[in-house]
Amino acid sequence: MPHKHQTLLRGRAVHGHHRVTNVELFFDLVFVYAITQISHTLLAHFTPLGGLQTAILFLAVWWVWIFTSWITNWLDPERTPVRLMLFALMAAGLLLSTSIPKAFDTRGLTFALAFVAMQVGRSAFAYFSIPKSEPRWRMNLLRITIWLSCSGVFWIAGALTDSSARLVLWAIAVAIEYMGPAMRFRCPVIGASSIKDWDVEGAHLAERCSLFVIIALGESIVVTGATFAEAEWSATVMSAFMVALIGSIAMWWIYFHIGAEAGSEEISEAEESGRLARIAYTYLHLPIVAGIVVSAVGDEVLLAHPEGHTSAEAIISIIGGPLVFLVGMILFKRAVRGIFQLSHLVGIGLLLVLIPFAHFFPPLHLAALVAVALITVAAWEAISLGGAKR
Fold first, then answer.
1. How many C-beta atoms surround the C-beta of residue 253 within 10 A?
2. Of 35, 90, 171, 194, which is most buried with the most CB atoms under 10 A?
3. Which whole number is the average pLDDT over 210-220?
4. Are residues 190 and 109 part of one domain?
């Protein structure tokens, strides 16, 4: 590989890894806003159709962020051209984020154009930034750009139609986007990429994904605090506030106490870091983050109506969010450690058993039972693994 001062490529640390840079953290601020928009959009359109539409928007947000994280793993964000690229992505990302609530209404074209510009523009920039002395990386970026250009046709076509046709065309676009890595971006004539072409600095990518989990948990904390501040304070509301906070702390513990560091160590030592990065971080972090976002909606529902009848909306968000989170966590840790964590299986089982009886409990009691299940998982894992980080 050419010397890092001669190209825009990151230099590889021999003993250790590059920390996440300030410009990467600055870039992430756009996605703090995007996650807020996603959770608020889901809460405002909590119907089967609204949930499907919000899911497509969330898949798009996650995909544009994780692809950018791959690019900044390869290119050096401290170099001025890469920084300028990230600033351009931030501008497009703000347009994308502000369009989320009306993406299936009046701002579909803005959302689609911003998304396609980010995906295709970033990948094309990376392609031209890779020196010709690295032909495998250049071909990899070329394949990625071709795939994202193909999906971009469906994004823009969907934006030019009505909302029902838009849903179908955008679903096709999302399917193309997500099939790309699984199919190693196979293209006619030039074939598919090799896993060796996806070599990454594993610890850096693990840290990037950990920070996105923090963003999602931060949304849960913000929702809890903002809703509590506006509510009429009573013993019941204060109890709901504590239950919501404890649930967020338990999810933090399940992810960060052992799992995040174990994943970082595993990917750093893996012979095929690209394969593990694709499975454990690109795909399997998706349900982890989605579960936290849905849980944030559940926290808002809980604090708004802690007593009385438990609606289907409350059941789906209060139980469904942590359930999706735990499914993501058990699959992530399976990819990292090679086993299914018994504590996580028990937690998933407890939440599934709770679903048929959920309507008998008021939201506060239901959320408290869910929090107990999450605490059980966190404590069980910590004790079974000796209470020490790997």
1. 18
2. 35
3. 93
4. yes
